[in-house]
Amino acid sequence: MKLIKHISILLLILTASITSAQVKFEAKVSKQKLGINERLRIDFEMNKDGDNFNPPNFSNFTVVGGPNQSVSNSWINGVRTYKKTYSYFLAPKKRGNFTIKQATIVIDGETYKTLPINIQVTAAVDKPKDPNDANYIASENIHLVAEVSKTNPYLNEAITVVYKLYVSPTIAVDSWNEIDSPRYNDFWSQNINTQGQKVQNGTFKGKDYRFLVLRKAVLYPQKTGKLNIEPLSLDIALRVPSNRRDIFGSLLMTRVNKTVSAGNKTINVKPLPDAGKPVDFAGAVGDFKLDVIASKKVLDASESFQVKVAVKGNGNLKLFKLPKISLPSSLEVYEPEHEEQVKTNLSGMRGSISDSYTVVPQFKGKYPIPSISFSYFDLKTESYKRLTSDEIVIDVLNGPTNSASDTSSDNPSNSVKQRVVLNNDQFAFIKTKTNFISTKTNYFFKTNLFWSLLLLPFLAIPLAIVVRKKKATRDADVYGNRIRKADKLAKKYLSSAKKSLGKKEAFYIALEKALHNYLKARLHIETNDLSKDKISSLLKEKQVDDGVINDFIAIVQNCELARYTPIDIVTMQEDYEKAAKTISLIDKQAR
């Protein structure tokens, strides 16, 4: 029995050791479906410490926090449990379905990868508010509003959408970025230029605010029923007051990145009434006038004239077709030229559209251009109206007589059309002077180019000698080469940080990573060995001056503290230059 008991205990120990030896490295997200105004947390967890952690490229997201590192150790029933986590906080840049690719890490010489994760980003959603969060203060003091002129228009009736950003005087906006533009599905849309708009004072929900008009759009609904206007979403960098005060008693400001949305708007579009709708109604809605004008009423055969059909006024001018003219067969008619002179403002389209027909009479006689009619829906009276043009008579004085029309007016194919002369210059002028070019062969031998190419190698010899001497002098300058090499090394490691200048969190994350990578390459140490005492002792062993060591450690501390304190672009530039100088000095002094 004792033997069986010992074997059982041994098996349990072996099973526990095998289970604990299994390495796990996985990615976990807070949610797989989120709105564009929400944040996503992703954790990369491992049950054994590793090195060379490489996160995926968050190309469709903005890293607003992290990487934050946490380590936990626990003992349960004599079994040690270890967990190390790298956490990132992400803000989506746009809507769509995205894949967060694999992260990698090296554990015990083996490379482990996480599984890809699919994320769906939708339009902005309503988020719960936390009154203890700085974001709550921002959400209560900044509002993006979409003002719609009419929520129940007729089909093809113009409505306007004006987007205004209201900001409380107690907070300051540093910048904003449009991350999601509204898509006006089922609308004809036209954006109105808002450049040069100034900040105005106004009220919102009974409180004083400053506001700025960000966007204006004119919409013409193309379908009936309930249509959705998608929200405009902005990512805004702002400063809100905190409960802390400086030594002078002034409130300290906290930097916050806030995503605001104008919210969805639903438009209920009414169909045009069927009662009284003309048979020839082409969809015109507004207030219009009809003009039919002939450029000539008296002319000779084979001369051309224009008939212009124009509709002008205020309405959906670009969204319907003009009525066609009907002319006698003895008039040759060409395809019309369409012209639009339309301006779009907050009241909708205003101007005129026209079709110009070129007409050429073939025979002598009088030709009537019948009247045409045009119908439209008048929004003021909410009824259909019809416009009718006057008949125009064209008198062709001189030209052949259409005898066929006298005998057989029902058969227009018997008519004999005259040739239309479009240009009076029927005979081209014969040139009496010509520009002849000599065909004599030019030989390359003994030309200036020939002698230049022949002497060029001899002239290049002194230049090559000078270049070679300069290269030899530079190669002999050991100290200068070392300085240049160190400066090149600093630029290599700090290139990513330089690209992020102006973006506080991204800059200091890149700067800290660059400093760690430099020490790993220069001192041949691993990431988990980079404590400040370890760095100091290793650099002293390499005979680096104490002042340079202190500068390096101070920069690392700045990277840690800068994420939680307000930093301007000037301070970032100073930290970047100090880091470049320190890396160069370490590379020069290290033995």
TrEMBL record:
Q: Keywords, A to Z? A: Membrane, Signal, Transmembrane, Transmembrane helix
Q: Where is the signal peptide?
A: 1-21
Q: Does the keyword Transmembrane apply?
A: yes
Traced from the root, the source organism's taxonomic lineage reads: Bacteria, Pseudomonadati, Bacteroidota, Flavobacteriia, Flavobacteriales
Q: Does the keyword Membrane apply?
A: yes
- What positions belong to coiled-coil segments? none
Source species, please? Answer: Flavivirga eckloniae
From the record, give the transmembrane residue ranges.
Answer: 449-467
> What's the protein called, per UniProt?
BatD protein
